[in-house]
Amino acid sequence: MKPPLTRVCKKCGEEKPLEEFVKCSKRKYSRTHNCKVCDRIHKTKWRNDNIERCRELRRQYRKDNPEKFSAEFYKQYRKDNPGKNKAASAKYRKDNPEKKRLAWEKYHKDNPEMMMRLSAKAFLSRKIGIPTAELPEELIQYKILQYKLHRKIKEHETS
Ligand SMILES: [Zn+2]
């Protein structure tokens, strides 16, 4: 049997083309009986009503997919190598106070990406209220992109 061209939405009662309905492989003709507009309204409402639950889902996802969050990886590394970097860098600082300052300045200049990353992490940590080590990599990347965008806009303004 050929699929019908239109379907009536169970929520708003409007007749719409089949492709305006939410995809679902288990349903007849691979579409649900809710149109995309109603679905979006429903989802937004659900999200607003379940902010806590959403947060919980995200947390659970992070827990189930640690490999996707490199921060988790570094946390583990620090756990497995306690004090390793700390002790070494403290000694270096003590032995080379002036060198350290110059190195830091050079580092700033040579590593704009890394500086953006640090700023992004500090910003997000403040904004969301979770430790920098627990920030999802995705968010950090978004923030860095924003910095880059601002930088590009400035370049256009001054040129
Ligand atoms: Zn509808």
Description:
The protein is mainly α. The chain has three domains: 6-48, no CATH class; 57-96, no CATH class; 111-158. The chain has seven helices and four strands; from the N terminus they run E-E-E-E-H-H-H-H-H-H-H. The strands form two sheets. A two-stranded antiparallel sheet has the order 1-2. The protein starts with 5 loop residues before the first strand and ends with a helix. The structure holds zinc ion. The site of zinc ion has 7 residues, from helix 1. Zinc ion (ZN) binds next to helix 1.
Strand content: 5-15%
Class per helix and strand makeup: mainly alpha
Globally, the shape reads: elongated
The hetero molecules present are: zinc ion
Number of domains: 3
Largest sheet: 2 strands, antiparallel
Q: Kindly state the mean pLDDT as a whole number?
A: 83
* Poorly predicted regions: none
N- to C-terminal distance: 63 Å
Q: Nearest-angstrom radius of gyration?
A: 25 Å
What is the strand tally?
A: 4
Helix content: 55-70%
Count of helical regions? 7
- Give, in spatial order, the strands making up the sheet with the most strands: 1-2
H/E element order = EEEEHHHHHHH
